[in-house]
Amino acid sequence: MLTTAPHLYIRRPSPTTAEFTVTTCPPLTVPLRLLLLTLHLARALLFSAAILVLYARFVEPSQHHDHRHHYYHHQGCCTPIFPFQLFLAGDVPQFLTTLLQTAHRSQPGIFLSQLTAPLPDWAVAAASLAAAYAAVCFRLHRTESVLVLRGLGIQTCTIRGKWGGCFGTQTRFIPTEQIRDVLINEAFRGFEVRYYLIVVVEGEEDVVVLFPGLLPRRRIVEAVWRGVKGCLFEGEEDGKG
After folding, report:
1. Per residue in 207-235, pLDDT tens?
2. Bridge partners, 228 (sequence order)
């Protein structure tokens, strides 16, 4: 339900521009949107918990409690200051500090501190950083795209693996004058013949494979090949004719 086999979306913003996107994201129905929203909230909670554990273990013990973080003293009385008041006042660093202190003293914060108390510092740091990285960078769906601009070239966008949300996105632009041809090639993957789309670039020994991570089925490869050739070379072919 959360993922599906790679399928194709075609977008044509103008007669000379076409974008071909292959993704494993299924159509966004209402139940799927609600489920994805729940997953995003869970990732936000995981990231918040990781930051809170790091703060409680490595920052809070070294800080002396300062009542100025929570109170304004005026004419002998103490007025509580809430985190959002600091944010509205423009004191963002103090807002974040007060927010972390408040969360640390809450019941979930106390529970996390007690849960991680028996662990050594290196284990807490490694587990928290891994959880924060997973919450931010893990991608449930995989998407690769090819943008064709007639007279300019082809731009490819590839995401390396499910953990490529932060650092694994690779984008390349190939000018039209360097494109010798766009072809469909075939290769064996195990006992299966797979068809894939390649761009032959002038001056390069290696070809550029389109959609290298997903390697969609032949039907999608042929549809993209026809669309890329038609958008990229249609004007040239008409001129030659």
Report:
1. 999 998 888 999 999 999 999 998 987 65
2. none
